[in-house]
Structures are given as structure tokens and as C-alpha cells.
Amino acid sequence: MTTPSQTVGPYLAIGLPWEDGPTVVPEGTPGAVWIRGTVTDGAGDPIPDAMIETWQADTAGRFDHPDDPRGRVAGFRGFGRCATDPEGRYAILTMLPGAVPGNDGKKQAPHIDVSVFARGLLDRVVTRIYFPENAEANAADGVLGSVPGDRRDTLIATRTDDGYRFDVRLQGEGETVFFDV
């Protein structure tokens, strides 16, 4: 007798989302931007029951977390969570992050860490969102620099009228780069 595979979905919508999960900052916050996108599978079909989690520094590159090596700074949650809708879309309202120190002491380009949970995955996959206006910092970023040049564009958001677009493709042509963490 075979048993079903164990994956992280499709039951993500039960108990994981919370009302203000998609709003890292309250609506109306000066400088707030939307990051919107679609999560798709290897065939390009939207995944209606995925979950996007984001973790980021504040605009000064600081974390409201005891592990921030410069000391915890209070007041910025930095964490967002949004389930995808029936068309595979998600939206997170946040602020653009500042640069953070890397393990080597060099500054990392401003970025948002992203975890994706979805049916068919045995574990979450992890990626990053970088921003196109930080071209110089992006070029010097060690993590982004470790990605083959022809795949880096899967990590750079596209500017929109009210924020950014960042689509996640789990497999296939144009697959988003994921990191082994």
C-alpha cells in the first residue's frame, strides 16, 4: 500500500494567514510600496494555495530582532505573510529595506528574503527580492553575484506604478533562483 507524499500544502490557508499578515506596514504609511506577484508551477499555471512569507530590514538596514548584530531596533515588524488567491496572486505592503551587513562585513544590497510554501514541495523554497534602482549595490552583492548572470533577473523586481512586481516560478523555463539555506 502506498501513502500520500507529505508536502507543505495545500492546507496553508488553515491557521497560517492572519488579518494584517500582508501589511508589514499599515496602509497610508509614508513611503510604503506594494510588492505584488503571481506564484506559478512548472507549466506556468497559477498556484491558488501557496503562501509567501517575507522577512526584511527596515529602511536603515536594521532588524527588530535580538539576533541583529548591531542590536535590536524596535518598531518595524519586518515580517509579512500572504496566501495566494485563486489566480495565484499575492500582495505585501512594506517599505523598501536598507542595506544590511553580510557575514563578511561587506554591505549586502537592499533585499527582501522570501519563503514560498506550496503543495508539492517537501519544504519551503527560499529566494530574495532585489530592486532595480540599486544597480550598483546589486552588482557588488556577494549573494546576487553568486547567481549565474543569465538567471539574476529572476531575483530583481520590476517597478510598477504603486510598487513592484515579483513573480515566483517554481519550475521550468524562467524558474526563480532558490537558495539552499
From TrEMBL:
Q: Which GO terms describe its molecular function?
A: protocatechuate 3,4-dioxygenase activity
Q: Which domain of life is it from?
A: Bacteria
- Give the Enzyme Commission number: 1.13.11.3
Print the keywords alphabetically. Answer: Dioxygenase, Oxidoreductase
Name of the featured protein: Protocatechuate 3,4-dioxygenase subunit alpha
Q: Note the Gene3D superfamilies from the entry.
A: Aromatic compound dioxygenase
Which InterPro entries is this protein grouped with? Intradiol_dOase_C, Intradiol_dOase_core, Intradiol_RC_Dioxygenase, Protocat_dOase_a
Task: Tell me its family.
Answer: Belongs to the intradiol ring-cleavage dioxygenase family.
Q: What class of enzyme is it?
A: oxidoreductase
Domain called Intradiol ring-cleavage dioxygenases: residue spans:
17-171
